[in-house]
Amino acid sequence: MPNICLYIDKKRISPYAMSVYVALTEKGLHFQEKMIDLDQQEQHSLAYCRICPTGKIPCLVVNDFHLFESLAITEYLENTFPFPEYPALYPDETKARAKCRAVQALVKTDFISIRQAMPSDSIFVPPQVPAIFSAEAMQDIQRLLAVTDTVLGEELWLTEHWSIADFDLAFMLHRLLSHQVELPEKIQAYIQRNFQRSSVQSWIQENAKLGA
Ligand SMILES: N[C@@H](CCC(=O)N[C@@H](CS)C(=O)NCC(=O)O)C(=O)O
């Protein structure tokens, strides 16, 4: 087995790092975690930039292969540890896989005003008071809900089975849930189904230990 090491944020609140952690855990791969302290700007240290030239987390190191960008990492994991020897992260069928990639690309780069108004730490410790949102954030919320309604299938997954794109979408939707935005039952159930997975719960438990 290769030597796998995942660099993540010390606070364990990054959706990008969490996505790769979930992917590795779903695959059943053994890996070592290394924490980077973003508050201390450790991501810009010479030592870390030698490992990951973008100065961001996550970064995956498999033996001597270094890879940044969460979407590229989950695709690499799928290709290197393929189904059926390992559980699938993406559907095999071309259109279904393209749909998953499209959703991942969208939620990882778009909806900036949602990310600003509802930061990722709110997933782990929900705010006590409901927030007041800007017109831009309100528009993004409506757009996110409309996209979700269109892409979610009857199985309550994006495609026939769970994929890592489901987790990425559910994480973005969970920002709304944590901020007490009213959500259709279908979307609430979708978030719950994703967050009940043991791979997701495993990260949440590690995050909770930090606050304990
Ligand atoms: N597109 C990147 C985004 C990674 C990213 O933005 N990571 C943030 C943490 S959530 C980071 O490392 N921030 C530190 C910085 O920008 O200095 C990916 O998908 O991996």
Broad shape: globular
Q: Largest beta sheet: what is the strand line-up?
A: 2-1-3-4
Distance between the termini: 34 Å
Mean pLDDT: 97
Q: Oligomeric state of the chains?
A: single chain
Small molecules bound: glutathione
Q: Helix-strand pattern, N to C?
A: EHEHEEHHHHHHHH
CATH architecture of the largest domain: Up-down Bundle
CATH class of the largest domain: Mainly Alpha
Structural category = alpha+beta
Number of domains: 2
Number of helices: 10
CATH domain fold name of the largest domain: Glutathione S-transferase Yfyf (Class Pi), Chain A, domain 2
Q: Please give the share of residues in helix.
A: 40-55%
The Cα radius of gyration reads 17 Å
Q: Indicate the proportion of strand residues.
A: 5-15%
Stretches where pLDDT is under 50 for at least 5 consecutive residues are none
For the sheet with most strands, the description reads: 4 strands, mixed
Number of strands: 4
